Prior knowledge:
Helix content is 73%, strand content 6%. The protein has helices at 2-19, 21-38, 62-84, 86-100, and strands at 46-48, 51-53.
Amino acid sequence: MNFHQKTIDELFISVGQVVGIHVFVIVLERALWKTQLKYEEAAMIKISEDGVSLNELFEIEQDRAILVVHEFLINIVNTLGHLVGKQLAKQLTEELEAIDV
């Protein structure tokens, strides 16, 4: 889970600088909404202009928490893809997959 938190933190900083924190928070909120459609535990993910907190997910079974966070990351990339283009989304997906190996 710490790895996923680090990945989200890095996305928050890098993408937030490019598109602006307020826009990225909206992207995160949409990604969270989409994740909640599949995993109700996603409601434990907290988003603010200061970052994303996964702390409450430590309360559930770790394998389930990882599924929730992975889905959240995929939804972030997909939402960004709609906003900034498929090429950037593809690059982010490849980077995430390379890290997961």
